[in-house]
Amino acid sequence: MSEKNLQNKPNENNKVKEKVRNHWANLDYKTLNRPSTSQTNNDETLNLNNTSSNNQKRSIIDIENVTDVDKGNHLVIDLTDDAEEMPHKKRIKTEIKYGLKNSTHKFPGFDNDWCFKLIKSKIYDSNINSSSYLLDMKDIFHDPFLQDTFIFSYQFDLEYIYSMLHENIERIFIIGQKGTIIDYSTNEYTKFRKKTSIRYVKNPNMSNHHCKMIVNLYRDGSAKIFMPSQNMRMLEQILPQQVCWISPLLLPSKKTKIYSNSNSNSNSDLDLGHEFDSPFLQSLRDFLSFYEYGYVNILEGCFDFLDDLDYASLDDDIQIVFSAPKNDRHHGSAMGLFGSLGLCGSKEELEKKKATRYLAQVSSIGYGIYQGNLFTHHMIPQWAGLPNMVRKHNVMNIFKEYNIQPMVVFPTTQEIKDSPTHGDAAGWFHNIGSNSFESQKIFYKQGPNVSKERGTTPSHSKYYMKSTCTDEDPFKYLDWCIYTSSNLSMSAWGTDRKDPRNFEIGIVIKPKNGGKLKCHSFVDLIYNRPGSRLNSNEEAIGPRSVLVPFPKQLEGYSDRDFAFSQ
């Protein structure tokens, strides 16, 4: 688009940004006004349940107002009673209180398979009583069988977290960075604060602990892993679209784990020094090793129970992919794992020139790198088996030659404006490097098949996927999919020349045993079922399918469309 057209374009971005600023300046955690929609003509105050009526300002937890466990590094703080022995000083013992073999207790998700669920919003889903494709975040935490929970995130509202916990829980571990934890203000939650231990990461400058993962340990020694796209705040749950990946129930293993000091990632830049017989456990352990700084491991003893679990239900098609800043012992970028994860194509495959789509759906886009951008000049060349494209101005011509189509799903200014909350969800979407995407014509928006309940509400999830499907629906089957906390930025991914700055985590999903990896949209499964209203008579889609929150019928940006920018 020409510079002249840009100058003549009405400045809709500024209007939306002004509305967002005005709204957020006065927004209270405890109440939220429902916007007027086709279903609701009058503003209505939502009762968000389990929230405090106390309007006093809640503080950011820092090292000044809690027990400082490690005076030298400020890496571990503990909110438990001073007389209690600090758990990071020793292995955290897992005591099995009672078994669940004969129990009818229902865990979130499936016991034997992984799955995706759309996180339920009190705004968009108030008319849906139940759906097998929706997850209430409270279902993760309000479980009488839950013994310990370990929460990795970028932002934490303790009042939000504590409001979801069951009183039977024994320990709450929060892993994050300083300045991102909001304290609670309700006295009834003091019982949970006494059970809380906070582990601070040691971040380099200009970096974030952006990973999002919850590990639940249950009283029979089993565990579940959750990867929500949201941080631990109520507004993130109810305003933008959010999804969650849920692992199978991981039972104690009957097999002995193999452990050695050999290098487990000989094809990557990581040098971690441990090897397990489960690829999933290996990659998870590799990620956790980056929380070690010199002689201080802020997670020491926390995750020993992971080594005793059976990962057979994950090892065939799921593996962890992660980024982490270089520390005293380890270094490497998530891109260094692409080869060992089997994501990189060969020259022979490239020469077939089979129609191939690479899609990225993210909530933020960072600065371009050198003379290109991360997606088209680094990621796709690696995945497709092309040489490095960093300094190739004609990268799109090369893609055309090899029948490669890059696609970036990102909200337009008009989509933000037209969404049911009229811009209230915009606060989580950032775009500071999209000019090259616009010039390359690879931006896509949601098609006409949006639901009336969620409309063009943007998705805070991050998906990267490859499809060579020849079906009329080009994303009916996937070659592979990455679901992650990583946005399109060097801080999140690093490059082949530069380490990442953020902590990020996700999963790589590949077809199981040579089968097909199916992809469906929550829009079709929950809201737009043919001949049905809402979720009645919904067709059951089994586990082990990739589910996305946006319609699969996408449209390229028109000349009148602009990517939303804060």
From TrEMBL:
Keyword Nuclease: yes
Region (Disordered), start-end ranges: 1-20, 30-53
Annotated site location: Interaction with DNA: 489
UniProt superkingdom: Eukaryota
GO cellular component: nucleus
Signal peptide range in chain numbering: none
SUPFAM superfamilies according to UniProt: Phospholipase D/nuclease
Keywords: DNA damage, DNA repair, Exonuclease, Hydrolase, Nuclease, Nucleus
Pfam families: Tyr-DNA_phospho
Similarity field: Belongs to the tyrosyl-DNA phosphodiesterase family.
GO biological process, one term: DNA repair
GO molecular function: 3'-tyrosyl-DNA phosphodiesterase activity; double-stranded DNA binding; exonuclease activity; single-stranded DNA binding
Name of protein: Tyrosyl-DNA phosphodiesterase 1
Gene3D superfamilies, sorted: Endonuclease Chain A
Active-site residues, Swiss-Prot/TrEMBL: 210, 460
Biased composition (Low complexity): 40-53
